[in-house]
UniProtKB/TrEMBL annotation:
All copies of domain ChsH2 C-terminal OB-fold, residue ranges: 225-286
Protein name: Putative OB-fold protein
InterPro entries in UniProt: ChsH2_C, ChsH2_Znr, FAS1-like_DH_region, HotDog_dom_sf, NA-bd_OB-fold, Thioester_dehydratase-like
Pfam families, sorted: FAS1_DH_region (PF13452), OB_ChsH2_C (PF01796), zf-ChsH2 (PF12172)
Every FAS1-like dehydratase domain range: 27-145
Organism expressing this protein natively: Streptomyces nymphaeiformis
Domain of life of the organism encoding this protein: Bacteria
Domain ChsH2 rubredoxin-like zinc ribbon: 187-223
Length: 304
C-alpha cells in the first residue's frame, strides 16, 4: 500500500467498534403472517413454523430488523461518516458479499425485537474482479424481550469499479468453429483452401455438413471429394435482427447449392445484401476473418 492508502486505512479502521445503529426496534413484533409469507416464498413446509406453538424460521432473523421501503431513520453519524470517507476516496460502488448468522434462541410470535448494529471491521484495501476497495462488516445483535436471540453479520464491498477495456480492445470476434473428430477433416481442408465434401465409402452418396455416418445406407466408411467451388444461391435470408457480436446487420446468409449437389450455409459476398437472388451463380473463395480464422464464402457473379 502507498502512504496515502495507509493513511486512509488508518482512518477507516478507527470506525471499527463504533455503532451503526443503537437501540432500534423491529417495525413489527414476530408474527405468523410474515412467517407464513416467508415459508411460502422459501418453499419451507416444516411443521415447526405453523400452528399455535409456531416458532419463526431462524433464517428470518434479519427480516425482523428490516426497515422496509421507508427504511429506518437516525442511522449513526459514524456509519454515515465511514461511507462518506469511502465515497470520497473513490470507492463509490457497493456490493453485498455475504452474511453469517448465529442463533441463540428461537423467536416466537409476539416477541418484540430490539437490535444494535456495530461496525465490526473494515478490511485493508483489497482488489477483486469488480474493482479495488474495502470490505465493511457490520454485526447486528438481535434481542427479544431484552435477551440476545441471534447475531447477523453482513459484509459489503465498497469499491471503485475496475476500468473497462476500450470498445476497440473489446471488439468482438466471429465465433470459432467447434472442431471435433467428426468434422476435423473439413476444417483441415479449409486450412488448405479446399472445400471437402464427404462421400460414403459404400453407396457413394455425397453429404454435407460432415457426419459420422451415411444418412442413406448407415455406413461409417467415407472419403472426400473436393468441391469445384461452383454453385448457385438455392435460398437465402437477410439478417436484420437480432444482431450478434461481430456481425453487422443487415447481411445475407445464403444456402448455396454446390455443383456436386450438396448444399451449405455460408455468406454471399461481393454484392449488397439486398441484391442476393435465388438462382444467382456464385463461386467459392476463402475469407480471412482474423489471424486464426478462415471461412469458405461465396462470391456473387462467379460464372466468369
Ligand atoms: Zn452410404
Amino acid at each position: 500500500m502507498s502512504g496515502t492508502d495507509d493513511a486512509l486505512y488508518e482512518r477507516l479502521a478507527a470506525f471499527e467498534g463504533l455503532p451503526a445503529a443503537t437501540a432500534w426496534t423491529g417495525k413489527d413484533p414476530v408474527n405468523l403472517p410474515m412467517i407464513r409469507h416467508w415459508c411460502e416464498a422459501m418453499g419451507d413446509e416444516h411443521p415447526a413454523y405453523r400452528g399455535p406453538d409456531a416458532v419463526a424460521p431462524p433464517t428470518m432473523l434479519q427480516a425482523w430488523t428490516m426497515g422496509g421501503l421507508s427504511g429506518h431513520t437516525d442511522r449513526s453519524s459514524a456509519y454515515e461518516e465511514l461511507f462518506a470517507l469511502l465515497d470520497g476516496a473513490g470507492y463509490t460502488s457497493v456490493v453485498a458479499t455475504d452474511c453469517e448468522q448465529e442463533y441463540l434462541r428461537p423467536l416466537r410470535p409476539g416477541d418484540e425485537i430490539g437490535f444494535d448494529t456495530v461496525i465490526e471491521s473494515v478490511s485493508p484495501r483489497k482488489t477483486t474482479k469488480l474493482g479495488t476497495g474495502h470490505f465493511v462488516t457490520t454485526r447486528t445483535d438481535v434481542r427479544a424481550g431484552g435477551e440476545l436471540a441471534g447475531t447477523h453479520r453482513f459484509r459489503i464491498l465498497k469499491y471503485a469499479p475496475a476500468a473497462r477495456p476500450s470498445p476497440e480492445a473489446e471488439k468482438p470476434r466471429r465465433p470459432r468453429p467447434v472442431i471435433n473428430r467428426d468434422n476435423a477433416g473439413f476444417w483441415e481442408g479449409v486450412a488448405g483452401h479446399r472445400l471437402l465434401i464427404q462421400r460414403c465409402g459404400d453407396c457413394a452418396a455425397l453429404r454435407f455438413p460432415w457426419l459420422p455416418g451415411c444418412a442413406d445406407c448407415g455406413s461409417r466408411e467415407w472419403d472426400t471429394v473436393e468441391a469445384s467451388g461452383v454453385g448457385t444461391v438455392f435460398s437465402y435470408v437477410v439478417m436484420h435482427h437480432p444482431s450478434f457480436p461481430a456481425f453487422e446487420p443487415p447481411y445475407a446468409v445464403g444456402l448455396i447449392e454446390l455443383a456436386e449437389g450438396v448444399r451449405m450455409i455460408s455468406n454471399v459476398v461481393g454484392v449488397p445484401y439486398d441484391k442476393v437472388r435465388i438462382g444467382m451463380p456464385v463461386r467459392l473463395e476463402f475469407l480471412r476473418v482474423d489471424e486464426e480464422l478462415e471461412l469458405p464464402v461465396f462470391r456473387a457473379g462467379g460464372e466468369d
